[in-house]
Design a protein that fits this description.
The protein is mainly α. The protein has one domain: Double Clp-N motif (Orthogonal Bundle). It contains 9 helices and 4 strands. It has helices at 13-27, 34-41, 45-51, 55-72, 95-98, 108-118, 129-137, 144-151, 156-166; strands at residues 10-12, 31-32, 105-106, 126-128. The strands form 2 sheets. A two-stranded antiparallel sheet has the order 1-4. 30% of the residues are buried.
Length: 169
């Protein structure tokens, strides 16, 4: 017996925000959208296993979606610049980590996802990656998150079924 709990680990809401912000910054995006929340969640091994996806493949799929969108507008995609590397995100961020100058702001949809995910929790800033994923799965196109999940070939109904069967009670 290892003494490990099967309960999902609680994360600070700011940790997910900072991870998503690093993904947005890495891609050169001006705002944190729901697609960046998906990428941030894939840093959690339990989510990567649940979705059967890794962060690198999701990044590539999002790049391809961007190229297609730009192509549809008649804009040549890509400037040939490599993506920026991501910076370290503390596991327990402090206010000064979040309030740093130059932090990327969230879109209203991404902010709503984090707010709704943490709503049922007693400590509102604590949330599980699964709670955030459930909120993202509930979104509909043209929101970027469901478009990314679809492009990755992820069956959201099956993911919901697996999450429900794994939850206690």
């Amino acid at each position: 017996m290892t003494g490990e709990s099967n309960a999902p680990a609680m994360l600070h809401e700011w940790t997910i925000y900072l991870r998503a912000g690093e993904e947005a910054r890495r891609r050169g995006d001006r705002r944190i959208g729901t697609e960046h929340l998906v990428l941030a969640l894939l840093e959690d091994n339990s989510i990567a296993l649940l979705l059967g996806m890794d962060l690198q493949r999701a990044r590539e799929a999002l790049d391809l979606l961007d190229q297609r969108a730009l192509g549809a507008l008649g804009i040549e995609s890509g400037c040939g610049a490599p993506p920026l590397s991501t910076r370290h995100v503390p596991a327990k961020p402090r206010l000064r980590d979040v309030a740093q100058k130059g932090r990327v702001r969230m879109t209203p949809a991404a902010k709503r996802v984090l707010e709704q995910a943490s709503k049922p929790n007693r400590r509102r800033l604590q949330v599980t990656a699964q709670q955030v994923l459930l909120q993202l799965i509930g979104l509909r196109p043209p929101d970027p998150a469901p478009m990314l999940l679809s492009a990755l070939g992820i069956d959201v109904a099956e993911v919901c079924r697996r999450m429900n069967s794994a939850s206690p009670g």
